[in-house]
Specification:
- The protein has one domain.
- α1 runs antiparallel to α4 and α2 crosses α3.
- With 134 residues, it is mostly helical.
- It has a two-stranded antiparallel ribbon.
- It comes from Spirosoma sordidisoli.
- Keywords: Membrane, Transmembrane, Transmembrane helix.
- InterPro entries: Phage_holin_4_2 (IPR007165).
């Protein structure tokens, strides 16, 4: 469920930024969803190969920054494969990568972990919220 949510939100972020930034062209939301799926697959299969040496060079002190730069590079790679997706320049790709990372971390922060669900914390939190509304 969390994977589907991340893919939909990433596609929404990409499509929304394409609306606001003239350097980014996305044909439709289906293309944005395809970009999100390809980005996830490339990050899983190829991203760690690129990130690991860069993290070694920076002594793992700039892990978040390295992840954002590698995501921007992967977006430029996706741009070269798809005709319906265009990014003119590296900075717009970096902006997309930064916004995707920030939104993804906000989603992960709000999503309950399996431990929270098993312990009953989520049920208690919902009950307290319902009592506050009443």
């Amino acid at each position: 469920m969390n994977l589907i949510l991340h893919l939909l939100i990433d596609a929404g972020v990409i499509f929304g930024l394409a609306y606001f930034m003239p350097q980014i062209d996305v044909k439709n939301f289906g293309t944005a969803l395809l970009i999100a799926v390809l980005l996830g697959l490339l990050n899983f299969f190829l991203g760690w190969i690129i990130r690991f040496p860069l993290n070694l060079v920076t002594f793992f002190l700039l892990t978040g920054l390295v992840r954002i730069v590698v995501t921007a590079l992967l977006l430029k790679l996706i741009d070269s494969f798809l005709d319906s997706f265009t990014i003119r320049g590296f900075w717009p790709a970096l902006v997309i990568a930064l916004v995707v990372a920030v939104v993804g971390s906000l989603i992960d922060r709000q999503a309950p972990t399996p431990e929270m669900v098993e312990s009953g914390y989520v049920v208690i939190r919902q009950a307290v919220a319902a009592l506050q509304l009443a």
